[in-house]
Amino acid sequence: MAQDFSELTKLFNQLSMGSGLAGLGGGLFNIFGKQKSPYDAASKIYGQIPGATEKYLSPYMTAGQSALGDLMGQYGQLTGSTGDVYNKLAGGYQQSPGFQSALKQALGAAGNQAAAGGMTGTPQAQLQSADVAGTLAQKDFGDYMSRMMGLYGTGLQGMGDVSKMGYGASTNYADMLENIMAQQGGMAGMSQALQNQQRSGGVSQALQGLMSLLGGAGLFGGFTNLFK
C-alpha cells in the first residue's frame, strides 16, 4: 500500500511541478515579456494624420500669413502717414477719355454766354472760362480718386478675407493636433494601466507557480513518509 501511495505521490508531484513551471513561466513572461501595446499601433496611425492633412491646409495657412503681413503694412500706412497712400493713388491720375469733350462743350457754352452779354475777350469772360475748366478738372480727378479708393478698399477687404481664411485653416489644424495629442495621451495612459495590470497578474501567477513547484518538490514527499 505504501508503494501505491508512493506512486500516487510521485504523480501528484509531477503534475504539481508541471503546473508550477507553467505558471511560473507564464507569470515571468507577463512581468518581463514585451507585449504589443494598443498605443503603439494607434500612435503610428495618429502620427500620419498631421502630415496627410497639412498638405491640404498649408496653402491656405501660408496665404493667410502673407495676406496678414500685407494687410498690416497697408493699415500701418493709413494710420501712420495717410499722405503716402493718397499720393500713390493720385500719382496715377490721367484725364478720363470724356474729359476733353466735356471741357470743350462747357467752354463753348461759357463763350456763347459771354458773347451774348457782350463780354467776349474780357477778363471776366476769361475768369469764367478758367473756372469752368477748373471745376471740370476737379470733378474728373475726384471721380478718379473715388474709383481708386474703391479699388483700394476692395483690395484691403480681399486681403482681410484671405487672412481670415488662413486663420480658419490654422485653427482647424491646431485643433486637430490638440485632439490627436489628447487621444494619444488617453491611449498612453490606458496602455500603461493595462501593462500594470498585466504585470500585477504576472506577479500573482508567478508566485502561484512557485508555490506549486515547492509543493511538488517536497509536500507530497513528506506525506508518503507516513505510510512507510
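^ that was protein a. below is b, sequence first then the C-alpha cells
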Amino acid sequence: MMFDALSKAQRERRKLEEQFSGLIGEAEKKKDYEERDGLVSELLMERDLIEDRINRIETDRVQKEAEKFGIPVPSLSDKESWDEDSQSHTIFLNVSTRLRLRQEIRKERRARWEDTTIWMDRIVLPLIGLIGAVTGLVSVLKSK
C-alpha cells in the first residue's frame, strides 16, 4: 500500500515535470520570459508539494522498518534529523537520516540472516545428513 502511494507520487512528479518542461520550452520559444518565470515558479511550488508527500511516505516506511528491527529513530527534538514540509508544516526525516536508518536496517537484516544460517549449518544440515545416512543404511539392509 505504501509502495503504491510512493510510486504514484513519483509518477505524478515525473508527469508534472514533463508537462511543465513543454510549457516552459514554448514560453522560451516565444521569448515570453514573464510567462516562463511564472511557469517555473508554479512548477517549483507544485513539485515541492509532491516532494513533501514523498518525504512523508518514505519517513513512515523507514520508521516502521526501524521499529520492526528495534533500531532507534531520532527523537523529534533532534532538529538535525528532521525537516518540516513547506505547506502543511508536518515533519519528516531528512534524507541523510533516512539513509543512515536504512543502512542500520540492512545491517540488522544481515545479522539476523547470518544467525539463521549458522543455526542451519550447525543443526539442520547435520540432521538432514544423518537422516540420509540412516535412509541409505536401511535401503542397503533391506536389499540383502
